[in-house]
Fold this sequence. Notes:
Blueprint lengths: L2 E5 L2 E3 L5 E8 L8 E6 L6 E6 L6 E3 L7 E6 L4 E6 L8 E7 L4 E2 L3 E5 L2
Parallel strand pairs: 2-11
Antiparallel strand pairs: 1-3, 3-8, 4-5, 4-9, 5-6, 7-8, 9-10, 9-11
Amino acid sequence: xxxxxxxxxxxxxxxxxxxxxxxxxxxxxxxxxxxxxxxxxxxxxxxxxxxxxxxxxxxxxxxxxxxxxxxxxxxxxxxxxxxxxxxxxxxxxxxxxxxxxxxxxxxxxxxxxx
Length: 114
């Protein structure tokens, strides 16, 4: 069945880095634009970054621009989010999403704290 599974979350100190991964299965990954979203405690889910089906086009929320990088490996059916210079405000559950005929992963928790 169609599935997205995130991994790579954890506890990191401010200024640190994490790389999130999202493994896709059950569909032709290379046909779909993908996104990362996040939801902080008590807040609405927000779009973090989007990447086109080929990986040739990316967009970022202003709050993460210059610190986060979205990428994909279509041969491996993997989506990534490299997060650098992390801040406490980046603490959230991070989700990957297939943008057409919407599919969500279960999320992975990122906690930025000293």
